[in-house]
Amino acid sequence: MSQLAKPVIDADVTEVQAQVRPPALGRWGWLVLAAFAVYAAASMRWDWLASYYPKLLWGLWTTLWLLVVTTALGLVLAIGLGIAQAAGPRWLALPARVFCTVIRGTPLLLQLWLLYYGLGALFAANPEIRQSALWPVLRQAWPYAVLALTMSYAAYEGEVMRGAFLGIAKGQLEAAQSFGMTRWHIFRRIWLPQAFRRALPTLVGETILQLKATPLVATITVMDIYSVAAQVRQATYLTYEPLILISVVYVLIALLIQRAFAAFTKTHQTRSPR
Amino acid sequence: MSSLSILGLDLGLLLHDGWGEALLTGLYRSLSIAFGAFALGLVIGTLAGIGKLHGNALLRQLLELYTTVVRSVPELVLILIVYFAGSDLLNAVSGSLGYGQVEINGAAAGILVLGVVQGAYATEVIRGAILSVPVGQIEAAQSFGMTGPAIMRRITLPAMLPAALPGLSNLWLIAMKDTALLAVLGFGELTQVTRQAAGTTKEYFTFFMAAGCLYLIASLISNALSHRLEAWARRGLPKDVRA
């Protein structure tokens, strides 16, 4: 428990915090954007939108649910990984640390392909799994996408949570102990809420990074908005239009994430603990 | 040849059938592209970071657009846009000069597209680091009669190093992992080679695990080196003051 007094969160934390400074667009910025919008409307082809918009909306829906589900699952897992590393016994702390290091040290695309092709081939070769009730789910691509994205978010945020747990002042926990709280009580009512508040600013950055990771699932046949755009590109031979359209969509989602977190932080961090 | 097997992973394939060398060649390509992209990103980041702080309103806003867009649009999309825009531009230039179509070298294209992405993140890191240099140091330099560029070169850039290094080493790790995205464009780097090897031999686990180990080793070595570098850059500074 002597580690508890360590005052600083990881360098990564301040890093991500620095990353999510909201954009400061002034007159010139909007002017440039408007000029580009006029150019795009006037001299690019957008007639394909009429026939592809249902597919695009469906792809957008896939992107959004993937983002929300994997972020939520990953966050729960990250809390476990964080506390295991910060206060767990060795046999829990070590695997958690190895998990975070391995996931953070290898490309997500590789992890995704390992799960989809490797695990998928293993499952397909196993007659017991092929005949089980889970097979109709396991033969699809999305479970592997959800698994890979969840693990990725959990590993990156788990590292942040570790620092956040360690950053809570030891006196807080000792005070709770002296009040006769049980360990579970202390965790739930003292340690986790404060650690979570400390980690809150990094969540924005990590969630935007998660959004940016979602199009990788297109490489394992999940139909997200990126793969719909790729389809449009192949069908219409238009290089830039579909890519520009989804870029705008991604920027809007990222801004939305920033706004949502800012609103959440405002309502939930009225008294910042020091 | 597949007698050597550990945990069900067929190591004979890696050792005897030439796939091991193919993976190592892929790793070499990945690392050289990552290094090039990181260096390009550093140049872009330094110039753009200075531009964001000292440029005129139009330049500052253009740079703001650049960093905002790159940091919220997925790398996969950016890589495609930069790749197609870059090759179109190059062909337009060479066409107007009368050279006709140009075939772009894969590694150069990879460095260019990843470098543009890295540049946006590096801009923010370096901008933040420059801001962390105490104003007094810059004022002292001014009172010695140093000009703007001299102050930048001799005071600001060296003094911001401790603040910039953690972010930059993070970026190097990202650069290494982002080279995997070039597999989607079909460049022959580590992930692409791995997919080919796995697809040919149907030994998915063996090859993806092997490639994972290579990436992990590269990451761990980079981590150790960057810690030493950070310690060196922070020498003489008080402990635990993170700029």
- Rounded to the nearest angstrom, the distance between the terminal CA atoms of chain A is 20 Å
Count of distinct structural domains of chain B: 1
CATH C-level name of chain B: Mainly Alpha
Structural class of the secondary structure composition of chain B?
mainly alpha
Write a structural description.
The complex is a heterodimer of chains A (274) and B (243). Chain A is mainly α. Chain A is flat. Chain A has a domain at 2-16 and 65-215: MetI-like (MetI-like fold, Orthogonal Bundle). Chain A is built from twelve helices and no strands. Chain B has one domain (5-233): MetI-like fold. Chain B is built from ten helices and two strands; from the N terminus they run ββαααααααααα. Chain B has helices spanning 11-16, 19-54, 57-72, 75-96, 106-131, 135-143, 148-178, 182-185, 190-201, 204-233; strands spanning 5-6, 9-10. Chain B has a two-stranded antiparallel sheet. In chain B, strand 1 (5-6) and strand 2 (9-10) form a beta hairpin. The radius of gyration of chain B is 22 Å and the shape is flat. The N and C termini of chain B lie far apart (56 Å). Classes of the chains: A mainly alpha (274), B mainly alpha (243). Chains A and B meet through helix 1, helix 2, helix 4, helix 5 and helix 10 of A and helix 3, helix 4, helix 5, helix 7 and helix 9 of B.
